[in-house]
Write a structure and sequence with these properties.
- Helix 1 runs antiparallel to helix 11 and helix 5 runs parallel beside helix 8.
- Helix content is 43%, strand content 13%.
- The protein has 673 residues and is α/β, with parallel strands linked by helices.
- Thiamine diphosphate binds next to helix 2, helix 7 and strand 4.
């Protein structure tokens, strides 16, 4: 007789658990405990609530699902396979193997249905907040389509996620912004790697989230009725985000290891796995067994999901017929369409004559970009007036008053992240993951360290996130060494797939923004000055190649080449003038983006940096990396010590960043080459 009802649901849950445990066992590494303990939560959520189309994982009307505890990856892979996504049993067998679609932690772009790359705990939590914010902004922008676009962001989060500071920052902002379509299931199993959470995590999480302004609910995370009721209640709560604290048993079903840290991060082992299967009445062979009744149930469930999607199509088509203009805007946003004349429009916002800080040039370019690209949105971690990142037209996303009950206006374009750099990084990434927006977040460059894990994930995941860092050197002055970046610029340049721009003037800043907005395969970071810079006559077209000859050498002999970025480009130009007066020919190469320059054809790079010349790099940062570009025999005038609290002119003098001091060092160095 066919299995039905609760018994059939239990069979489906066991199928998820054993697929996961078998994959970990075969890989001889991984995390069986969280998938086994969280399978009930996941099955109820996916079968009864989550809207998705396994045949079209990018369907715009879908709910988002984030597995923030990415180490439980097999839980997600099992679900994706069983619900009919394009992820085969063979893919599952290849769990954690080189080149497989099932890496150790979920990576977006490898398997369909993986909405976010997770693993660094807390990041997925923050991404979900970004997605939920993007969702509210979307409803506010296209209210005519609300009936079709009303979706939810669900996630599973773990003890580790909730211990991480980034989750606290994001949760605080989510509560403040009343992100009512965000629902997290907390896999509250009291176990992390070192043992019981009693070792280091005893706060009252429910009270904490209540205080953030969340709706909270405690349940037994293995009781399907309680799970269903709690999710239903959370779905109906549309004015507050929800945290369902689901008490679970890690490794549930494993006779000796359940409820212990042993089951967190290593295979059950052949004997324990065998006994787990025996206890569940599960066949010992074959491995990766899927009972026919369970398979049929999963197929039926995914058919229901497909049918719901068809129904959505009809609804959306009707709404589109009624509101063609809103639909056109929404679809353009989803494609992140850009105007062909973007570059010209950004260039029109700057000039080549005025002395301005590059943060101020950026502020002007942002206004032009915001007019040209309606989906450009962003803000700062409470430094808007300093980073000059507010969008003038369009208003802010935020509460209309301080009161807890005050409604939030999501229609604006300027975001206020509060003093939460790390949360900002994860939320910006979440907005990019959601789609429909090109998001940016800004702070002082020295605090890029506070958001580095999110920047790294943006780079790994190839997100179009834009990170703006102003006050980019010791020349920010009096705030002193705590605020003066030294190693941040090169350390950001070390990150694979992150384009790091440090423009020198208006046209170069326009080039940096055009590149950041157009880039489809990764994030961009921008280093911008606090202080005014004399214009260098930079070229937007040439800067778009990352580096270019700003000046050929004047004067006799083989020229020395000065390579500089940002605030040191005007210094290099003045130094070259001085050297020319002394009869030393000096070329100046402006290098606003080493990463883009490295992607240029070899002959172009050779033209800009010919072999055999004497190279001098001037950059107010740690300069070791430049040796790879211009040779270890180059003269690198940089900083390998912390800065000092003093006016910028004094710092320039004391640290040798004046035309006289630089020219002098070059003159002393040249004969020794
Ligand atoms: C930022 C970060 N720090 C550390 C780790 C290593 N790590 C992986 S899981 C984990 C904690 C496990 O506890 P929990 O989140 O409760 O997972 P469970 O034991 O329930 O599987 C840690 C410290 C990580 N993945 N990310």
């Amino acid at each position: 007789m066919a299995t039905i009802g609760a018994e059939l649901d239990q069979l489906c849950v066991e199928t998820i658990k054993f697929l996961s445990a078998d994959a970990v066992e075969k890989a001889n590494s991984g995390h069986p405990g969280a998938p086994m303990g969280g399978a009930d939560l996941a099955f109820v959520l996916w079968s009864k609530f989550l809207r998705f189309d396994p045949k079209d994982p990018h369907w715009l009307g879908r709910d988002r699902f984030v597995l923030s505890n990415g180490h439980a990856s097999m839980l997600l892979y099992s679900l994706l396979h069983l619900f009919g996504f394009d992820l085969s049993l063979e893919d599952i067998r290849q769990f954690r193997q080189f080149g497989s679609r099932t890496p150790g932690h979920p990576e977006r772009g490898h398997a369909p249905g993986v909405e976010a790359t997770t693993g660094p705990l807390g990041q997925g939590f923050g991404n979900g907040v970004g997605m939920a914010l993007a969702h509210e902004m979307t409803i506010a922008r296209y209210p005519e389509l609300e009936e079709a676009l009303a979706s939810r962001v669900f996630g599973i989060v773990s003890d580790g996620d909730l211990m991480e500071g980034v989750a606290s920052e994001a949760a605080s902002l989510a509560g403040h912004l009343r992100l009512g379509h965000l629902i997290y299931l907390y896999d509250d199993n009291h176990i992390s790697i070192e043992g019981s959470t009693a070792l280091a995590f005893t706060e009252d999480v429910a009270k904490r989230f209540d205080a953030y302004g969340w709706h909270t609910k405690r349940i037994d995370g293995h009781d399907h009725h309680q799970i269903e009721d709690a999710i239903q209640e959370a779905v109906q709560e549309t004015k507050r985000p929800s945290l369902i604290l689901a008490r679970t048993l890690i490794g549930k079903g494993a006779p000796t290891k359940a409820g212990t840290a042993k089951v967190h991060g290593e295979p059950l082992g052949p004997e324990e796995l065998k006994r787990t299967k025996e206890a569940a009445g599960w066949p010992l062979t074959p491995e990766f067994y899927i009972p026919p009744d369970a398979l049929e149930r999963f197929r039926a469930l995914s058919e229901d999901k497909r049918a719901a999607r068809e129904e959505w199509n009809r609804r959306y088509d009707a709404l589109r017929a009624r509101s063609p203009e809103a639909a056109r805007r929404f679809e353009s946003a989803a494609r992140l369409e850009l105007p062909e004349d973007l570059e010209a429009r950004l260039l029109a916002a700057v000039d080549t004559k005025t002395s301005l800080a590059t943060r101020a040039w950026s502020g002007k370019v942002i206004q032009a970009a915001a007019r040209a690209v309606p989906w450009l949105i962003g803000g700062s971690a409470d430094l808007g007036p300093s980073t000059i990142t507010d969008i003038d037209q369009g208003g802010s996303v935020g509460r209309e008053a301080l009161e807890i009950e005050a409604p939030v206006d999501y229609s604006g374009r300027t975001l206020h992240f509060g003093v939460r750099e790390h949360g900002m990084g994860a939320i910006v990434n979440g907005i990019a993951l959601h789609g429909g927006y090109i998001p940016y977040g800004a702070t002082f460059m020295v605090f890029s360290d506070y958001m580095r894990p999110s920047i790294r994930l943006a780079a790994l995941t190839r997100l179009r996130s834009i990170f703006l860092f102003t006050h980019d050197s010791v020349f920010l002055g009096e705030d002193g060494p705590t605020h003066q970046p030294i190693e941040q610029l090169p350390s950001l340049r070390l990150m694979p797939n992150l384009d790091v721009w440090r423009p020198a003037d208006g046209p170069e800043t326009a080039a940096a923004w055009a590149s950041a907005i157009r880039r489809t395969d990764g994030p961009t970071a921008m280093a911008l000055t606090r202080q005014k810079l004399a214009p260098v006559g930079g070229s937007m077209d040439l800067a778009a190649r990352g580096g270019y000859v700003l000046r050929e050498g004047a004067g006799g002999g083989t020229p020395v080449t000065l390579v500089a970025s940002g605030s040191e480009t005007p210094l290099a130009v003045s130094t070259a003038d001085l050297l020319a007066k002394k009869g030393i020919a000096a070329r100046v190469v402006s290098m606003p983006c080493v990463d883009v320059f490295q992607r240029q054809p070899e002959d172009y790079r050779r033209e800009v940096l010919p072999t055999g010349l004497a190279y001098v790099v001037v950059e107010a940062a740690q300069t070791d990396l430049w040796a790879a570009l211009v040779g270890a025999d180059s003269l690198r005038i940089g900083l390998d010590h912390f800065g000092a609290s003093a006016p910028a002119e004094v710092i320039a003098k004391e640290f040798g960043f004046t035309p006289d001091a630089v020219a002098d060092r070059i003159q002393r160095w040249l004969p020794s080459r």
